[in-house]
Design goal:
By secondary structure, this protein is mainly beta. It is built from one helix and 21 strands. It has a 16-stranded mixed β-sheet that branches. Strands 3-7-5 form a three-stranded antiparallel β-sheet, with no helix packed on it. Strands 1-9 form a two-stranded antiparallel ribbon. The protein starts with a helix and ends with a strand.
């Protein structure tokens, strides 16, 4: 048993050892370099898109805006390019005319066979890391080809309960390039384009062999038990983020407050999808579908409901 006095003595010794081991001459320290009065404060405005959706027939040019806070003189600002794929070309400089606060650089890509990606960086000699406007000295860009998974989706309540999403007929799921990133357009009739990934088996060579839990990548705010569907694309650390509330087309019951998607106690996401194709018979011959489920969902004031998802091809 440790007595109070022995504990205080031990704590005092620990503090002495700690103070001794933290002498400043033992740890090299580089002081931040001051920013000169002539620094132009160059940055990439936040209005630049980091994810661009394109089709094969689209023009293969991407405009990226570069801005600065000091506009007195004309300038040629070097742009470093890192983490670049071979099928995208980026300019080495951004050119400003005297008095010009913004300029545009153009990136070009050759194809969408693989997702063109790059990361652009402004040197600290030209950007001010201590005072950035609405933007950053670093900008990442990916150019995705939208691949149609299904443009014919139905969501039905399984078991007893109100079919909150009856009549919703304009939903679709697309894959972004070959990546494990998908868009569910007009998610459950909310008007929100929910991005998600498949956690489980993802096959980039044959996406129809992909299945598993769904993890949302935007429009969500989560905790240890599940996640809320949010109006804002990026809800994390956003004090103004609001729960998605809407009245689905064809529904007689509005969803007034929120929709909450549970995880199980084992951490498994009850929202799952299976993109493997299953055959069924029609009057005109065989057809195909994939399916998924959304279980343990709380809507509004505590109404638990489960959904079946069918993707038709």
């Amino acid at each position: 048993m440790i007595t109070k006095h022995k504990y205080i003595a031990s704590l005092t010794m620990a503090l002495v050892v700690g103070i001794t081991s933290c002498k400043t001459d033992d740890v090299p320290y580089d002081a931040p370099q001051p920013v000169g009065d002539d620094n132009m404060g160059v940055y990439f405005p936040s209005t630049n898109e980091s994810m661009v959706m394109r089709a094969d027939a689209d023009e293969r040019v991407i405009d990226v805006v570069v801005a600065r806070t000091r506009t007195t003189e004309a300038a040629q600002v070097p742009i470093s390019v890192i983490n670049k794929t071979d099928n995208i070309t980026c300019p080495a400089t951004a050119n400003f005319a005297a008095g010009e606060a913004e300029t545009t650089i153009q990136l070009t890509y050759s194809d969408l066979l693989t997702t063109p990606k790059c990361e652009l960086l402004i040197d600290e000699r030209y950007g001010n890391p201590y005072k950035i406007k609405d933007g950053s000295m670093r900008h990442s860009l990916s150019v995705y080809k939208l691949k149609t998974i299904s443009e014919n989706i139905s969501v039905t309540v399984s078991g007893s309960g109100v079919n909150y999403f009856a009549g919703v007929d304009d939903m679709a799921i697309y894959q972004l390039g070959n990546d494990n990133r998908f868009i569910w357009r007009n998610f459950l009739g909310s008007g929100i384009d929910l991005q998600f990934r498949i956690d489980g088996n993802f096959d980039s060579e044959d996406v129809s062999n992909s299945y598993g839990a769904v993890t949302p990548l935007n429009h969500c705010s989560g905790d240890d038990y599940g996640w809320y569907l949010m109006n804002e694309e990026q809800a994390a650390n956003n004090d103004n983020a609001t729960y998605a509330a809407w009245t689905p087309k064809g529904s007689t019951t509005p969803i007034a407050d929120y929709i909450y998607f549970y995880y199980s106690y084992e951490g498994y996401n009850y929202f799952s999808i299976d993109l493997r194709k299953y055959e069924y018979s029609t009057s005109s011959g065989p057809a195909y579908y994939s399916y998924g489920s959304i279980n343990s969902v709380i809507i509004d004031d505590g109404d638990y409901v489960n959904f079946d998802i069918y993707l038709y091809y």
